[in-house]
Design brief:
The complex is a heterodimer of chains A (about 775) and B (about 120). Chain A is α+β, with helices and mostly antiparallel strands and about 775 residues long. Among the domains of chain A are: about 350 residues, 4-Layer Sandwich (Glutamine Phosphoribosylpyrophosphate, subunit 1, domain 1), CATH 3.60.20; about 120 residues, Penicillin amidase (Acylase) alpha subunit, N-terminal domain (Orthogonal Bundle). Helix content of chain A is about 35%, strand content about 20%. An 11-stranded mixed sheet of chain A has the order 1-32-2-3-7-8-9-10-18-19-23, with helices on one face. A 6-stranded antiparallel sheet of chain A has the order 24-4-5-29-30-31. The longest helix of chain A has 28 residues. In chain A, about 50% of the residues are buried. The longest helix of chain B has 26 residues. Chain B is an all-alpha fold and about 120 residues long. Classes of the chains: A alpha+beta (about 775), B mainly alpha (about 120). At the A-B interface, helix 1 and helix 2 of A face helix 1, helix 2, helix 4 and helix 5 of B.
Chain lengths: ~775, ~120
């Protein structure tokens, strides 16, 4: 009896220890000594280590910011050490990125991650990555060796983890790091491609088209920008060349479906500026007479940062800049001879095709015949829940899923096999701008506007990647009934490039690349050209540029919607008009006008949405709204009516003021922008204890120093200023957050304040490894 | 010199527990170690002997490396528990796990593994 009692008691306890009890973490993971995160200590970050490397000797020294300086004799040895240092500082981030793309997040995070897994599993990247890696190993063995060395470095670090050095997040989720596979870089690429190119705006556009009709749609959602400020102002293309580029297919939108897709992932770039800035000036424009190149990428600002700064010296040849943990390459940075950076091309690279499926749900119509829907099932493990089975269908148009009771196939550039590693490998080895340009020939996704400069004084820009050139430049779900309706991807780097432009500078800020009818066929939803305009203004007006001038440009907070709306505001803002008539649009934290202007812009957009009845998920682009209201006396709205632009603006101003009054009371001092516009840098698991509390920050969604909606969570995630001198590069840089993903590291968030203040750290040219120069070191011997 | 057998087995149990708790990060290894400890031929053992063993092993672990202040405070914020309570709770949960598992395995398995001679005084 006693035996039975204890057996039952023990079994019950062991079961209970595996369960969630209220808000407490799982007992077995968090509250037993072997697995307890109380064991975590930071001594491992401070001690000198001697390790073995199968790729030859490497020395690694960390500076006070946690930036690793890697000294190796060959690429593989450097990649081995890069894998090691990435894992040391960002292992959890790497693990999560791979799990996300493999669709294995629910297995560790439970049901809340199920939607993510359901999305990713349909693409079957799990098996594709292995095939892509094999293809790379056959075609570019040099690159495959680098991947292999990198993976070995990551696994070396994983192999020597102890409970004390296992990152906190693994303890919290109760998991161990997975072995790092050679093909994992492909997951990383898809992860970035998803952030920068994937949206389901076509589903929302289909709803909007059905709601407001074609006339209002063509007015409020035009295919081209009214006030373009193109990246390539001199672009030209003959009609015959254009006809060659655009497939001759008659496309049809799936009209008037009246279906609703509330789960659609709509990305509105006005709210979430997933863009970037880059610019380069020739020696004739710079104080030093040498080219200056700048880059700042606008991504989610979170802890740990997207970027990881790294310095590699391979046989004396340096590669320095920002890398992404999970890949051995410098993504934005420089080597001894060439500097590079990028901004997102913001092209439309996702299409939805409506399939005509038979009543049994087994076949779909293609070219007048019934083709089988080839089903495949994903088994998704869910932590703390039952496994989920989900069936998808392979079709000519891509993977089909049932949404709102219909069969919709999705065609996304992420499914396209590509190997961007080859481009960054080429960048790292390039000795001239021409070689860097040649490296871009391999590039597919996510399409980017690359900026380049070399130490011979050449500058240039190339927009590289695959574009989906639709004959019908309209948004919405397309009909998928004929084979030829599937539009493939076309690389445009041969058309969109500029070397040593006549203006002596080149820049991009996610606006349209060209002012040409072709632009409408590439994308219909570019970002506003405001930042681009401001960069042009600053380059043209600032004195000969130096590092200080470049910093001034990075930190510029003039809202470029203000010049468009100034006259309107002066007319509708009552007693405030005198202030708006002399204001310059600077979104500083210490003033009241930025708050009023920001709030007015939001209300103006919301009033248009309300009068249009298009729903607030995919409103017309702000730049378009503001431009038409400022330039036309009246605008069309729902019900076939027209509304006076000034009346609409007055309505927006009044509702904005009431809103501010209700939020901040009558005390005008509370309206200062710093109290209104806050930035939040959250931990990626959204744990408040690991996040930076909200703080006042300048800028808006239309300033060069960009910030997203309130609280701002998307902004410049790094900044670089690089001068290419004949004797070698000089550079200033910083990233948002810190180098380390470990909360107890001194480098977890030490760059937040410097990022906010616009303080950079300088690149220090170093020739050889000297142990005394670093805070901590690792030595790898064969 | 003859090793007093009781002392030897208790010492072995203590060292094993300290080793597993200090160096290994797996709940099921702790359970496994507890099962093995329960099977050791300790004479006249009571359930609270295992409780004392586990507490002693926890104290040894903390003596070897007491949790860092930064870690304690961070975990307290994450778990919404005061840091001292967090440590106490960890000790209690660990002790219950070790005690229950060891004593149950002692009751059920110990005599099947070791020859009867080892159980005699």
């Amino acid at each position: 009896m006693k035996k039975l009692l204890f057996l039952v008691l023990t079994a019950s306890w062991l079961w209970a220890a595996q369960q969630n009890w209220g808000s407490l973490p799982v007992l077995a993971q968090f509250f037993t000594w072997p697995t307890s995160p109380l064991k975590i200590d930071q001594r491992f970050t401070l001690s000198e280590r001697f390790e073995r490397s199968p790729y030859g000797p490497v020395s690694v020294g960390y500076d006070s910011l946690g930036i690793p300086y890697i000294f190796a004799e060959n690429d593989e040895a450097a990649d081995y050490a890069t894998g090691f240092v990435h894992a040391r500082d960002r292992l959890f981030q790497m693990e999560m990125a791979v799990r996300v793309v493999k669709g294995q997040l629910s297995a560790v995070a439970g049901e809340r991650a199920l939607q993510s897994d359901l999305f990713w599993r349909k693409f079957q990247f799990d098996s594709l990555a292995v095939i892509w890696y094999q293809g790379m190993a056959d075609s570019v063995p040099e690159l495959a060796k680098r991947m292999e060395a990198y993976a070995a470095g990551v696994n070396h670090y994983i192999g020597r983890l102890t409970p004390a050095s296992l990152p906190l997040e693994f303890h919290l989720l109760g998991i161990q790091p997975s072995e790092w596979k050679k093909e994992n870089m492909f997951y990383l690429l898809r992860f970035m491609s998803h952030i920068l190119t994937y949206n389901e705006n076509d589903l929302a556009a289909s709803e909007v088209n059905a709601r407001i009709g074609p006339e209002l749609s063509s007015f409020w959602y035009p295919h081209t920008t009214r006030t373009p400020h193109p990246i390539y102002p001199d672009f030209s293309l003959t009609d015959s060349m254009m006809q060659e580029l655009i497939p001759r297919v008659s496309e049809e939108l799936d009209q008037g479906s009246g279906h609703s897709y509330p789960q659609a992932r709509v990305v509105n770039l006005d709210d979430t500026p997933l863009g970037s800035n880059n610019w380069v000036v020739r020696g004739s424009q710079s104080a030093s007479t040498y080219p200056l190149l700048c880059n700042d990428t606008h991504l989610e600002i979170a802890l740990p940062s997207t970027w990881y700064e790294i310095h590699k010296s391979v046989g004396g040849h340096i590669r320095r800049g920002l890398s992404i943990a999970g890949s051995p390459f410098v993504i934005s940075g420089f080597n001894n001879d060439v500097a590079w950076g990028m901004t997102n091309a913001t092209w439309d690279l996702v299409d939805f095709y409506a399939l005509e499926v038979n009543s049994e749900g087994t076949h779909y119509k293609l070219d007048g015949r019934w083709e089988p829907l080839r089903p495949f099932t994903a088994d998704i493990a869910v932590k703390g829940g039952k496994p989920v089975k989900k069936t998808y269908y392979s079709t000519h148009f891509g993977v089909a899923d049932t949404l709102a009771g219909r069969y919709l196939a999705v065609h996304w550039i992420g499914q396209h096999p590509s190997n961007e590693g080859l481009t960054f490998h080429g960048f790292e080895k390039a000795r001239s701008l021409a070689e860097a340009q040649a490296a871009l020939e391999h590039y597919w996704q996510p399409p980017q506007n690359f900026v380049l400069a070399d130490r011979s004084g050449h500058i240039g820009g190339v927009t590289a990647g695959g574009a989906c050139l639709h004959p019908l430049p309209a948004k919405g779900i397309r009909k998928g009934t004929r084979r030829d309706q599937l539009i493939g991807f076309t690389r445009l780097q041969a058309y969109l490039n500029s070397v040593d432009p006549p203006s002596d500078y080149w820049h991009s800020a996610n606006q349209e690349q060209i002012n040409h009818p072709l632009a409408a066929h590439i994308s219909t939803r570019y970002e506003s050209s405001g930042r681009g305009r401001r960069i042009t203004d600053l380059i043209d007006t600032l004195p000969p540029l130096n590092f200080y001038g470049m910093r001034q440009m990075h930190m510029d907070v003039v809202d470029m919607d203000f010049p468009i709306l100034r006259d309107v505001l002066v007319k509708v803002s009552g007693p405030m008009n005198i202030w708006f008539s002399v204001w310059d649009g600077r979104m500083d934290t210490a003033h009241v006008l930025p708050t009023m202007f920001y709030s007015f812009k939001n209300h103006l957009r919301n009033r248009v949405v309300a009068h249009l009845g298009c729903g607030d998920r995919l409103p017309p682009l702000e730049q378009h709204i503001f431009t038409v209201l400022a330039s036309e006396d009246s605008v069309p709205i729902a019900g076939g009516r027209r509304l006076a632009s000034l009346a609409l603006a007055k309505e927006a101003w009044d509702s904005s003021m009431v809103d501010l009054l209700l939020k901040f009371g009558e005390d005008g001092s509370k309206l200062v922008y710093g109290k209104f516009h806050r930035t939040l840098i959250a931990h990626r698991l959204k744990l408040p204890a690991l996040s930076i509390p909200e703080f006042a920050s300048p800028g808006s969604n239309r300033t060069v120093n960009v910030a997203s909606r309130l609280p701002s969570t998307h902004a410049a995630s790094m900044r670089t200023i690089i001068e290419m001198r004949p004797e070698g590069p000089r550079a200033l840089m910083h990233l948002t957050g810190g180098q380390s993903g470990r909360f107890n590291s001194p480098n977890y968030s030490d760059q937040v304040q410097t990022w906010l203040d616009g303080h950079y750290h300088a690149f220090r040219p170093v020739g050889t490894f000297k142990e005394d120069d670093y805070v901590s070191t690792y030595r790898f011997d064969r | 010199m003859r090793i007093p057998s009781q002392f030897f087995w208790y010492f072995l149990a203590l060292v094993s527990l300290v080793h597993v708790q200090f160096n290994m990060a797996n709940f099921w290894l702790l359970v496994g170690a507890s099962v093995v400890i329960g099977c050791l031929p300790i004479r006249g053992v009571r359930w609270w002997h295992f409780a004392m063993l586990s507490l002693a092993s926890l104290l040894c672990c903390m003596a070897l490396k007491f949790p860092e202040a930064k870690t304690r405070n961070m975990l307290a914020s994450v778990s919404h528990l005061p840091a001292p309570l967090l440590i106490v709770m960890t000790m209690v949960v660990t002790a219950i796990t070790v005690t229950l598992t060891s004593f149950t395995s002692h009751l059920l398995l110990a005599r099947s593994f070791f020859p009867p001679s080892l159980w005699k005084r």
